[in-house]
Amino acid sequence: MVVAGARPNFVKVAPILHELSRRGMPRFFVHTGQHYDVQMSAALLADLDAPEPDACLDVGSGSHAVQTARIMERFEPVLLQHRPTWVVVVGDVNSTLACALVTAKLRHELGCRIAHVEAGLRSYDWAMPEEVNRVLTDRLSDLLLTPLRDVDEIILREGLRDARTEFVGNVMIDSLLAVLPKAQRLDLPARLGVRAREYILVTLHRPSNVDDTKRLAVLLESLAQIAKGRAIVFPMHPRTKGRVVASSLGRLLQGLIVTEPVGYAEMIALLDGAAATVTDSGGVQQESTVLGVPCLTMRSETEWPITLTRGTNRLATWPPTIDSVAGDLKAVAARGRIPVGVASPDGWDGRAAARIVDALQAGPRSRAVDYAHEDSWSNLPS
Ligand code: UD1
Fold this sequence. Notes:
44% of the residues lie in helices and 12% in strands. By secondary structure, it is of the alpha/beta class. The protein binds uridine-diphosphate-N-acetylglucosamine. Uridine-diphosphate-N-acetylglucosamine binds next to helix 1, helix 5 and helix 11.
C-alpha cells in the first residue's frame, strides 16, 4: 500500500508504483487528498504517468491537527480492509506521519509493516512541521529507506536500531530523469517570453517565509528589485497566493512573471532552462543539484546539506534583507551551470525505485523487531 498526499509525494511514489507494476506485484495506491487543486494533484499525477489512486481520502485543507486527524480517521478503514504487507510512506508531509501512525497502532493485529522512503533526513529545526513529521515517522518505521549514505549515522545516533536501514538513493531523481527529455521539448521559456539561461526561477511556500507578512514583504521587495535587471518566473503555490492577497502585497509582483502552479514536466523545463533558482522547496534543492543549476535556498538550514557541499546550493543570509537576497543570488549565479549529473550524489541515478522494491521484496521482517515480545524494545536508549 503506497501513500501520497501532497505535491512532492506524487513525484516520489510514481516511480515506485511503476516498478511494482513492472514486477507484477499487487499494489494499492492511497491518495489522501491533502493537495487537491488540479494543478497540485491530478495534473501532476498525469504528468508522471501515475496510475489512478485506488482510494481517495479527500481530506483537503485544515490546521495541522485537523488535517492529520482527518487523514488518520479516513486511512484506518482502508488499512483494515486491505491488510497490506507493507505500508510505504514517503517524505515528510502530514500524510506521511498520519498514515505511519495509524499503521503503527495496527501492525501487531494486521501483521503489516511500515517502510519510510526518504528516511534519516533532519533539518534540526523543530519549528518546521516537516521536521516533526520526519523524526516521528522514522521512529515508527520498520524499514528506513535512505536517500544518502551518510544519514545512517543520524539513524544510529537516534537509537533507531530496531528498524532495518537500507540505502536506496533518491527516488525523486527517478522521476526527474524520466521526464527530462519531454521537459526539454516543451520549449517553455520561449512560451513565457523569456530567454533560456537568462531568467531566475522562484518558488516560495514555507510557512516560515510566507505566513509572516514582514518576511514575505522583504522577499517580494527583493525580488521586485532583482526583476529590474533579470526576468523572474514565479509559479505561485496556493498558500503563497493566499498570503499575498491577504497582505495586499500584490503590487510587488508587477515586474515578475507570476503563474499558477505548473505541472511536473513544466517545472523541470523551467528549472532546466533557468540561469539560477531561488527557492524554499526541498525538492528544488535536489533537482537543481542534478541539473547543475545554481540554487539560492531561502532558509537558514537544509535537510539536504549534500546539495551545499556539491556546490550547486547556497543558504541565504539569515534573516534575509532586501539587499542580502540580491547579493546572495549574484554570488550563487556567478558559479554558473554544471552539466547534468556531474554534481549528483551517489544513488541519485534514476534507479532508486528498483532498489526500494528490492528492499520491500526482501521481506517484512526487520532485523531485531518481534512485536510479539515486548523485550524487543528493551535495547532502546531511555
Ligand atoms: C505541504 C507540506 C510541505 C510540502 C508542500 C508542497 C505539510 C506539513 N506540508 O505544504 O512539506 O513542501 O506541501 O506543496 O504536509 N491549498 C490549495 N490547494 C491545494 C493544496 C493546498 O489551495 O491543492 C492551499 C490551502 O489553502 C492550504 C494551503 O494551500 O491551507 C497549504 O496547504 P497544506 O497542505 O496545508 O500545506 P503546504 O503549504 O502545501
